[in-house]
Amino acid sequence: MNLPKRVLVLSTTFYPDPQVGAIRVTQWCRYLPSFGWEPLVLTRQYQMAATPEMLAADVHHAVRIKYLNDASPSTPGPVNPRITKTNFAKRAVASVARGIFVPDIGIVFWRSVRDRALAEARAFAPDIILSTSPTHSVHDLGRWLSKQLNVPWVADFRDVYLMDFSWKSGLCERIRWPQHKKFERSIYQYAAGIVHAIPLHARWASRRYPQARERIVTIPNGFTPELLDPQFGAIPASRPGRSAVRVVGSIDDDDILRLAKAIRQLIDQGLDIEFTLIGRSPRDTREIDLLLGDRFITTGYVPHQMAIAYIKGASLLVSYLSSTRARSFQWTSKLFEFIGSGNPTLEINPSRPDLRLLRAYRVPYLCSPTSVQLAERIASMLTQQEDRKLIINGFREHFTRERQTAELAKLLTRITGS
Question: Which of 41, 79, 107, 333 is the most buried (most CB within 10 A)?
């Protein structure tokens, strides 16, 4: 019997963190053991810590986690951070720091824990190292550990880095641009494999770094199997017969209000609708409360499993991108779970990568709509059900997390020669 190969995973965040950055790498670790890989995750602890029992129940019993910071464990559960003067100031500082530190302020943390990470890595004796970003500074630790241990390293980009040139907007960024280019170039020079979640990013990188073309692969995001599991419960609307319009993930406060106004118009026309926001709560809900009353529901951040239950029970799922995000080259991760659920899905202001996905699978979208236009589209999608089974089944076949992890395992096996 062959012993499993060992992969050391470096990630800024991991289960049970409910935010989107944890999902891709957590799902990979969920399936890697079935393909002969034993993962050890080195990460940061934020609001909560995972116990071995939690990992066995929700991820895999073979997955282990080591936290590199000194945060004390807290009781697992949903978090609901609010925007305050304190964290607004932190965001302002982070914005300035982004232009000073290369590739981001996270480099300070990852370099401060090098000795601790090296001790854990030596004890684990990995066959390969996998670092996954953002934050992109985690790749600095991946490359350093690879050199110290003399084992191959794979870098995964969930989001783009220098491809998004709108990122070079401030004076500090322009001054430090040569250092950013040097940092990104080093990844494509030294990594044994470079994974991209966004196909457009992979094509751009292949042209920009032709010497790395044979080491570049695309493994997109996907949806989790609970969406198709009849035993996994859905969270329905708060009242029988009521339609549940739901946003899961980030949305700007102005767009929340615009969506609430559209829903109010439909309620006035006789439709029974409630609006649920799963994710960051708006700073001020007074105007929305006046519009919708108890038909407006906010949950704050919730664990991923609960977010899936809200997605399964939705009458209509809305992904609403800001104008800034729409101009970016990022993929909207939640869109994969929205489409995979089979429930009606509408995206507002899609990014360029999103647009390709939406057109391929005939998912409706609107660009900069008014509240009236929003109301008209929502009404038509709630009242006219279109048979899209063949399209949805094709999507589900291609974008399962298990299939994507199989591609990752194939890459790891090819690099290690086992």
Answer: 41
Domains of the chain, with CATH numbers? 5-222+401-416 (3.40.50.2000), 226-397 (3.40.50.2000)
Structure tokens that stand for 326 in this block: 């729409």
Q: Does the pTM of the predicted model rise above 0.85?
A: yes
- Round to whole Å and give the CA distance between 63 and 312: 27
| Token code pair at residue 23 | 């999902």
Using the Cα atoms of residue 282, residue 287, residue 288 and residue 289 in order, give the sign of their dihedral.
Answer: positive
Specify the pairing of strand 128-133 against strand 64-67: unpaired
For residue 164, what pLDDT is reported? 77
Q: Mapping DSSP to helix (H, G, I), strand (E, B) and coil, where does residue 303 land?
A: coil
As a whole number of angstroms, the distance between CA 192 and CA 86 comes to 41
Residue 269: partners with Cβ closer than 8 Å, 6 or more residues away: 379
Predicted confidence at residue 169, as pLDDT, reads 60
Q: What is each CA distance from 179 to 140, 184, 257, 278, 313, in whole angstroms?
A: 13, 9, 41, 38, 47
pLDDT under 50 in the chain at which residues? 72-86
Three-point CA angle 195, 199, 203, nearest 5°: 85
User: Which residue from 59, 162, 36 is spatially nearest to 416, judged by alpha carbons?
Assistant: 36
Taking only the tens place, the pLDDT of each residue in 32-74 is 999 999 999 999 998 778 999 999 999 999 999 999 997 644 4
pLDDT digits (tens, 9 = 90+) for 250-300: 899 999 999 999 999 999 999 999 999 999 899 899 999 999 999 999 999
Rounded to whole angstroms, what are the CA distances from 227 to 3, 20, 340, 403? 32, 17, 7, 15
> How many residues make up the chain in this entry?
418
Q: Measuring CA to CA, which residue among 67, 6, 4 is closest to residue 39?
A: 6
Q: In what order do the strands lie in the sheet with 345-348?
A: 296-300, 273-278, 243-248, 316-320, 345-348, 365-366
